[in-house]
Specification:
The protein is an alpha+beta fold. The protein has two helices and five strands. The strands form two sheets. A three-stranded antiparallel beta sheet has the order 1-5-4, covered by helices on one side. Strands 2-3 form a two-stranded antiparallel ribbon.
Length: 110
Amino acid sequence: MTTDSMPPTRVQIVFRIHGKITGDGKLSEPDIYYILEKWLDRHPEIKKRRQDIRIVRGRWTLPQGVRTEVVDASIAWGEDIARYDPAQDVDLYEYYLADDEKDRKAGENH
């Protein structure tokens, strides 16, 4: 098997998301655990591999100077997730998508 034909080690299931400033000026942070529960509800065949899901967290400063958590989630590669397209579930967390992820997803849809 060549490097080009090797499957990835992980598959992205939630793109990079972060907190947003609401219309009334408050910070709204994404609840990654709620998002993943809803994701697993849509993909019950993956529930048995819940332990293979990895959440990665970091910190960003928004343009308004507010610190927020940045988070994404991936799962270990397997035949059951090999053809998964994360864009099909972006509605679960679209509000919280990092701007560069929105731009990237918009470019893929054109």
